[in-house]
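Today's session is about reading a structure prediction critically. Students often jump straight to the picture, but the first step is always the sequence itself: look for stretches that repeat, for charged clusters, for runs of hydrophobic residues. Only then move on to the predicted structure, which in these notes is written as discrete structure tokens rather than atom positions. Here is the chain we will use throughout the hour.
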Amino acid sequence: MQTRRPEPGSPMVFQWRKWDGSPHWRHECVYLGADEWGDWVGQTVGWGSARPGKTLNVTGPSVTLVPSLESGTGFAQAGLDSVDFALTVNRGHPKGMRVYIDLGWEIRWDANPHLVTGIDMDLDVVRMEGAGEHTTRVDDRDEWAEHADRFGYPQAVMERLERLALDLEARVEAQSAPFDDSTADAWLDRVERLGLER
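Below is the predicted structure for this chain, in token form.
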């Protein structure tokens, strides 16, 4: 049974933690709605993100997909057997970061419909663009190796996420939906239309 979702336009929180349970990024978000890929949440100018030792305010709109692998969803039909990630797409990012995928574990809606939680697993897939150049890569492998040792990541988890990172890198490079521009741009337009800038 699917956990209840907030009403579109409602404020909510996406809370990450690390494998040992320590707090990580906490993002103030707004629930936007759902499509065949899962649920979309957004941030816009002035909204906050914080982790221990660092706080920032968003300078441009972004949307994040909390993916679903339920029967009949786009990912099930696309042959993806794991959705242990959250896809964020930015518009007008100051460093040219268009796509940022956090690989994670236990990413899910809480019993509280205004909260998504997940374990950040270090590995990221990033697509940069600007000055006529586009690059896609798997990022933060050094942090992945360090935390695997410190936290004792299970081997099966590591193997699964390594495969997923390479799969996602290829899908982002090919810009297959929902990693294409048009899918996210529709949700970016929606978050901007809400007029929630601070």
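Discussion point for the tutorial: The chain has four helices and ten strands.
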